[in-house]
Design brief:
homotetramer, Helix Hairpins, 3 domains
């Protein structure tokens, strides 16, 4: 009896915390509460760094921190406990172990671990505070577009590798060159290649603080060349990400379109039933409702156009043998 | 009789002010006059901030402001009155209420409201002047490409959300990191995380004023890392917008193409009649004439090519049975 | 007799100077000589601004300038004279008048006009020199990729309009806002909105000289907001141009492909003859040889694949009636 | 006997050093060792520029340099010797000569040449050190995505030409303009056009050090105009590269897809055999395994969908005569 109640409770907890398909008012409230708590935590870390705020309300900050750790710890344990409901046929502990190794579980752990570690080891207080900023990563769970962006980054890692490699070559070349030509004029600033690298990074990324600039003519010519090349490279990762993002979304739309076409071919076209299926795929792919609806209408419209074109062609050519009627 | 004249006047006003399909010399003159008035208003606000211009011609500025408010108020009332002509079958006041809630009507209201508010409440004069700058938003009505850009921004809001979220994470992380490593060397500049955020924003967006720069080696290494990552993110929204804009225009061209194809299938191909239909769709989609013409010619050309390919295939294979003639 | 010789000379001049299809060793030499002369002219203008170079070799600079004007004037007159050969059936003077109004002829005129104007009016010498820089525009004639870029810019003018409009709104808003909040702290720098605009432009374009920066907290918050928004807009024109360029080139490739397909349908496929036609279209579209060859091979390959797929289908289904053989 | 062993050794060396298809544990170890050595070489060059590091461990740096030269020389000779195995039917020395002229062989030569040159000529030590940085180029051999990027750059050279040309025009125009208006106010900084070019480059690339800024009103207006135009151009090469990279990868995927389709048409579909072929093409095109698998599955799925659509159509229309059954 108690066991049955526990299982029901576990299923309920799973639905609230982990099941994306379960979308009730209560589960949303829990989500919004956690998002709000994460954000106030980040705000608190920032506020604590201002001395007169921190020393004025030290107690409140500590109460809030303790409350946050409690909530995040309970959330972590509840997730660990309820994740066994995900695939009821797998063994309980194997699923838990798999969840523990998942990126989102590791982020949850990192969010609470430093606070507990502090009981055993003595960590520098200021450093500990900054570690609490990792809690911001817990937000990734709630933003589907952020997950898509991460997928794109991982898919385009080959291009990024190439860009970072070229950037490194350019930084090394630029700093060595400027070191050669400016070393005599500004021995302090361009004392060595590692020191010249600060100038190279600031210039190639077009930040240009102006704290270090070439003053010799040779240095300025070299600097101009490097700047022109650098400006062509600086925006490249952003460009790769932008086109990658567009392609990823186009691919997901194509995937939805194809699945819908496949379901249409099966003949038993039932709009209500299809709507459910489309909704399921849509959620998996992270598309919003409007986009999915557009795609479905587009497919239906194209098929109608095709059907009509075939009929017109049939009118002009005899349907029995294909002979032209003209 | 008077009522009939009033209705005719209302219809005339509606055509001049609201009906995009109505394109006469007079309606264009009204448009250009309003555009000119909006722009001179903005110029006036800017000029008033220069003391020796303002105190030298105080009266002229005030006359111009009063004239502008009068014109914009009359425009607002005429629009409210004549909008009832939009859909003659709807009740008059419901349509007016709907128009009042539309974004363009709200912009019109914001453009004149502060001036009237000033009669009742005493607002700081300088602040009031700046509010008049909102009149620039009235220009959105006249630029179709601007509306398309706004549509793209609203469609890509998911991606922007993700980018802004990542940017926030990076700003918080960067400012916390630099606060940790530079706080001892520059206690004034990096006094707290909120103060360090100014450096983080200026660096991540590659503006790089140079008023705040890291001076320790650790700070420079951290700064270099953040800059390289930041430069990859800074141009991302622009990239997303650019590809989004290209996709949006491509979609609109496809939409026009498909509607034209559908009208062709119906058999009764009549170029003059089609031209009208194409023009109507074109205007709705915000494409220019040249683009629409290109699409129409392309469709006709492709259909001709298809027809000829079918005929050639018929020549090589018997049209009666499909058997090869070779 | 003399008339015949003159006509032959005119035709020869036309081929050398104006006919892109005429590609001999001599016509190339003339092109390279003119390109070299334009570039050395620009270099001379730059060099003349350095006082000790100019006063050291004043005579040489003047000799070179006189020589250049002579060459460019003769070139202009020869072009005007020989352009009558372009379309032999048109009247001579109408063609010349049309050429005079063409952009490239206007550029040629601007390149020599100031020097002749100097005989009649007394222009400031330094300003006159700078005007000679317009000669650099004569280079546009020789770079096909530059012409494509100009076509893209003119096609995307709607998007640029929208971007510049938004940029103007942002500059006006940003400078008004910073004027409000920083005017008291830095009355010199943010004395009026026009003065604050310098800061707004430098910030929104992410240049960030650092000569003008906000110092109040409110100013820094406003500055951070504007910077984050600005960085999203700054790279937008570049993004629009890049995608526009890619689309333009893709369109030209499609155009070439379609023309090649159309010539294939006509049945009398003759590779040598087609090669000529492809080369002609290729040159008109500004594609290079490699790209054109790739497209032709791709079309032939796709048609071969289609043919084979049709044959395989014929094997599986009876070609006489379409009945399945399985 | 010895000759046979030598040939076997040469073949073994060829497989280890040159054959990309030969992928064993030992060949990978050799690759990783060489990559590691190149990177430590670059690190050493950078470290040597720091005086107290260099003079503290002068001997170690020299030992390491000698060891590196030895390894790279042996590698170069082994490659030259074993390359004869590439195409066994060609003559040995012709292949070696062809390899010597290849870009990757030239990079290998440049990496070791300065060190040997030093025996004969007396080169400035510091300059010699910097030349060793070219060893970083040896890494291109090991990164496929870098090679793809270089292919894209060479394909888009037309666009880059146009961009650099426009950039040059803008730099010349901007520096001439600012020289005209700022020369009187800041005769030191804007002494001549070449000096003003430093400002133009720093501004147009949006680096904006702030060491040189316009101070007159005319200069600021000109600066603002140039900045707004410049910001539209600065990110253009990056945008072109990003879209070019996306197109190049899409083209390679299409190429793989078409080759797979062609192999499918041949009828004898054998997944295992196809897998080998796909793997070979995949490696040549520089795609990763995941992408290739996705493409293959997509093609199979589309063909299945097409087959089913044909069958459904056959159900609705009599397959014997094409007459509708309704």
């Amino acid at each position: 009896m108690l066991f049955k109640m526990l299982r029901r409770l576990r299923h309920f907890t799973y639905n609230i915390l982990q099941n994306d398909d379960h979308d009730t008012f209560f589960s949303r409230c829990v989500d919004y509460f956690l998002i709000f708590l994460i954000m106030t935590n980040v705000a608190a870390v920032i506020a604590e760094s201002v001395d007169h705020w921190y020393y004025g309300h030290k107690d409140y900050f500590e109460y809030f921190e303790n409350f946050s750790i409690a909530v995040f710890s309970i959330e972590y344990l509840l997730r660990l406990w309820s994740v066994a409901e995900a695939k009821p046929d797998n063994t309980t502990w194997r699923q838990r172990w798999q969840w523990l190794k998942s990126p989102s579980a590791l982020i949850d752990l990192v969010a609470i671990a430093p606070a507990f570690l502090n009981f055993f080891v003595n960590i520098d207080l200021r450093f500990l505070r900054i570690l609490r900023l990792f809690r911001i990563l817990k937000l990734t769970r709630y933003f589907v577009s952020l997950r898509i962006l991460l997928v794109v980054i991982s898919k385009e890692r080959g291009s990024f590798q190439a860009v970072i490699f070229i950037l490194l070559i350019m930084i090394v070349t630029a700093s060595s060159g400027i070191y050669l030509v400016e070393n005599h004029a500004q021995p302090q600033v361009f004392e060595s290649i590692p020191k010249a690298m600060w100038w190279a990074v600031v210039t190639l990324t077009t930040v240009g603080y102006g704290d270090v600039t070439p003053i010799t003519t040779a240095g300025k010519i070299l600097g101009a060349l490097i700047t022109v090349l650098g400006v062509g490279l600086a925006a490249l990762p952003a460009g790769i990400l932008a086109t990658g993002l567009a392609n990823e979304l186009a691919q997901r739309r194509d995937e939805l379109e194809q699945q819908f076409r496949e379901s249409l071919v099966d003949g038993d076209f039932d709009l209500v039933q299809n709507q459910k299926m489309i909704d399921k795929i849509r959620r998996e792919l992270g598309l919003d409702k409007e986009q999915a609806q557009d795609i479905v209408l587009q497919v239906l419209r194209e098929q109608e156009l095709e059907r009509r074109e075939r009929e017109v062609r049939k009118k002009n050519f005899c349907p029995h043998c294909g002979e032209s009627l003209e």
